Every structure is written in structure tokens, then in C-alpha cells.
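Review form for a predicted model. The reviewer records the input and the model, then writes brief findings.
Reviewer: anonymous (R2)
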Amino acid sequence: MPGVRKMILSHVMSGLCGKMNRVKHLDGDVMETPLRRCLNTFDMTLLGVGHMIGAGIYVLTGAVAKDVAGPGIVISFLIAGFTSFLAALCYAEFGTRCPKAGSAYVYTYISIGEFWAFIIGWNIILEHMIGAASVARAWSGYVDSLLDHAISNTTVLITGEMHEQLLGRYPDLLAFGVCISYALLLGIGVKGSALVNSIFTIVNLLVILLIITTGFYYATPQNWTRNFLPFGWSGVLAGAATCFYAFVGFDSITTSGEEAREPSVSIPFATIFSMGIVTISYILVSAALTLMVPFSQIHPTAALPDAFAAINHHWLKYMVSVGALCGMTTTLFGSLFSLPRCMYAMASDGLLFEFMSKINPKTKLPLYNLAIGGFLSALLALLFDLEKLVEFMSIGTLLAYTIVSSAVIVLRYRPISPPSIPLTPGTEDSSPETESCSPVSDKSNDTASAMILAGHLRTNYSWLTPVFGKCEPGGAVTGAVILFICASSTFCITFHFSKSILHPEAWWTILLNVFLLMIIFLCVFVMVAHQQNTTGLRFQVPMVPYIPCLSIFFNIELMIHLSVLTWIRFIVWMIIGMLVYFLYGIHHSKESDPATTYSMLMTSSEAGKSQWGATTRTAIKGALMARKHKEAADKKPIIDEEEIVQ
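Model under review:
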């Protein structure tokens, strides 16, 4: 009997690991979708810009410049923008590979596995929920400050204060109402809400241009020359980790890929354009602010209006307020726009509850998810303070960026077997017709060779065959990526805590850091030594694996600078997510049955005769029959009775 128990346990564990590591299969045309494809490159660019330029530029800039980095905030924004741009390139390549809703969640599901995809999707849900709640709270606080705190004083007078450390000082009814109102506005449809977002974003950009022009006109260079880095380089890095919050939101472009007319063109262009516009805007605004006002005199919460009031330009103060409200409105739009689509993608795969995968036939929107996401975001905005919300936002985003960058490397070195493409011209089955089309055949042969040889050692590195020759194609690169992440994490932790704990002058500390750097460079060398597959990509991340590796390293470095309390909250949220996955998602995943993948019900010869996403009787019958066979197979005993008797 102990042997029987061991066999049963090994069967269960192997099945569990197989379920956690199964990947998403996208069969058929990835352009087929039940959503409405109506967004162009301009709409998606303004969607990304509007999601990123909001509370960060009007609220965050003053606090970081005064208390964290000083005028060095310009370098902080440059570092945070560069780190986000590296991740944005990886998102853009994945967006052209798979133009589906869900962004990093879908990318991870395709390349790495279901368990890690659920972790990413679960954190993206948290990111957008907290993003919407924090911006709604900032929106309410900005209006309250313009009205000389009349709203907060009246609310406290009626409801009293909430004497609880984890909650805000008072329930913010205005922030609650703002979240609900914008969620209702998004329910009118994609094109209508995109038009409203574009108008607010253009107004915001015009106000920012006015701020930059006026700020540089009244600049005082002595504000920089006296003390440019008052808090040192540690302050610059800490400021970069905080300023990273300002760049959260470009993934809304890839999240809307399932509603883009030409995703292979719109996603990369919109991502690059929006990141460039936002990074330049943040750097110029922070430079104008710190040149106008000495960093010690900057108002931490209303920096720009106070700065223009100090130079007797009160009319600019009101213009800044208009831009701030427009900017925070578009940021709130971006979060509430992305949140229901991520929930829809996970529910369509069976990892969240089935009713969340329903699409309204009239608006072509996941209205259930919009209602749930809007209400939960409004509830967070009602009860929690802005500072407590912002602290918890960056960690999930940085983790998502890290895994997406890793997935780009894994997929680039993964071979794909092309169906029935001859590898060499002039085979036995070749006919005179094929011989007359030798240029086309050569091109097909090159494509087939690139697809099959991906993940194998390059010719120049054939001397590594005794070491990596027995590995599966792409397996050595996958192992190198995992080791690179572990070594980078250890190096960043060691470097971060070396000043206070590890004594950087100790010889063993130096030896440890040198050893870790050698492992990091060795991992990159192993990746470079293998062949890539770039066939069929309209947009490619340049300099792979160097740029994705840099993105991974910078993301890990910024995560290390987050507070311990943020990590504790992250662990609690992940425990809740693990309960959802192991009690529901792992048992209802569509990938548990090969005949019921995400696109199986949308792929048939009749798909072209109906609207996108129409399910045909043939596909449904095939899925039901396959499920019946699978259930019958699952009822068979693992061990025969004769083996138990023996």
C-alpha cells in the first residue's frame, strides 16, 4: 500500500505541475474578436498619453522635488522613463504578436505558463483598481483645495472622522462619485469614450506646453548651480522609484489591442510616440519648476499653482488647475478602461468567474466587469487615503514588466515547426512548377530554417555543443533567463543593503558582487550564442537580448527600493489570488481541454461568413464531444485492482 500511495501522490503532483505550466494556444486568426475594432493609431496614442500624464505631473512632481531628489528630479524622471521605455518596447513586440485584450497577462500565458500568467493578471487588476482610486482621490483633493477645503470640512462635520490608521481621515464621497460617473461614461462605447479622452488629453498637453514655456522664461539658473543634487545619487534613485508611478499606464495601449483596427501597426507606433511625449513632458515640467523656484520652497501638493502665484501670474494658476483636472480625468479613464478588459481576458480563459467573460451585444463591452471594477475602485477611493494607495501601486507593475521582458527573450529563441514547408529546393516531390518559382521557394526555405533552427547554437558557437548540445531547443536560453533574474535580484539586494549591513569595504562583499556580475554576463552570453526566430514580426525589439535584459535589471533595482510595508501588502494580495486560482481557476481553465482554447469556438470555415467572434454549431459540438471523452478518461482508475492485490 505505501507504494500505491506514492504512485497516486506522484500522479497528482505531476498533474498539478502540468496544469500550472500549461500555455495558451491561439489557433486560427488572432484578429477575430467579439469586441469592436474601431481604434486608430491616434486614438491609442492619446489613450496612452492620457493614462500617464495626470496626477503624476501635477501632484507627484512637487513632492519628489522638495523631499526626495531636489533639482535632480530631472535625472529621476529620465531613469524612470528609460526603464519604462525598455519595457514598452517589449510590450510593443508582444502586442504585434498577439493583439488580444489582457496585455501582459496574455503574453505571459502564451510564453511562460498559466500560473505566472495568473499572477501577472491578478496584479494588473490591482494596479488598475488602485490607479483609478488614487487618481479619483487626487481629483477630489485638487477640487477641494480650489474651494478652500470646503468639501472636506463639510464632510467631516456631517460624518465625522474615521479614527483608523489604515483608512483615510474622512470618507471621500466626491471621489466615490467621480469613479462611478466615469465608469458610466465609459459604458457608452469604445469610440465615444476614446473621443472624450482625446479632447481632455489635447487640452492637458496645451496647458503643459504653456507651463514649460512660462517656466523657462522666468527661470533662475542659480537654483540649479547652487545645489543640483542636495540628496545625492541615493535621492535620485529613490526619486526614480517614486517617479515610476508617473509612467504606469502605457500598457493600456496593448490592453486595447483587441479593439485596434491595425494592431500590428498601431500598437508599436502608439507605444513609442506616447512614451516619448510623456517622458519629454515630465523632464521639461520638472526642470521648469525647479528653475523657477528653489527646491526648498516648492509646495509639496500644489507645486505648479504656487510657483506661478509667486511670480504674480495668478491667471496661470487657474489654467494649471484646468489642465490638472483634465489630466487626472484622462488618467482615471485609462485605468477604468483597462481594468474590465483584463478581467475579461482572464475570465475568457476560465481563470476568473464565467460571467465576467460576457460581452454586451450592443456596446461590445464587458459591462459586468466595468460595473464591478468601477464600484471596487470607488470603494477604495471612498475609504483609503491617497498616500496609502500610491504606496501599493508600483510593485505589481514592475513585476509585470519584468516577466514580459523575460517572455520576449523566451519566445525569440523558441523554435516553431512550419507545416509542410520544404527545407531544400529540388526535392523528390518537386515539380517543374515549383522549380520555376525558385525565388519564392528560397524565401520559404529561409523562413522555415529560421523557424526550426531557433533555439539552437549559432555556427560560430558550435564549440559549446558539449555543454548545451543535449538541451531542448530554447531550453538553455530559458534557463539562462531564470538564472539572470536570480543573479540580478541577489546583486541588487546586496548592493542596496551593503552600506548598512554588509560593509562594502569587506573583501568577501566585493568578491560576492564580482561573482554575481560574472554570472549575469555569462547568462547574457548564453542567450547571444543561440539563434533567434524573428519571422512574421511587424515590429521587433532591437538588440535582443540586451534591451530586455536591461529592462529586467532596472525593474528589479526599482523594486528593491520599495518599502517593506509595500512588500507585505503585496504578499497578502497574492495569498488571496492563490486561493482564487487553486480553488477555482486551475479547475476551470479552458486550456485543460485542447478543444476549448480561447479561439477554438471562434475558428472555423464559417467564421468568415459571420461577424467576428460568432460561435458555430460545429465548433460547439466538437468542444462538447472532446469534453465528454476527457471526463470518461478521468473516471478510469489510476491503478488496476489486480495491482493493488499484488
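Findings: Residues 75 and 371 are 40 Å apart (CA to CA).
Further findings: Confidence is low (pLDDT under 50) at residues 418-444, 594-621, 641-646.
Recommendation: see findings above.
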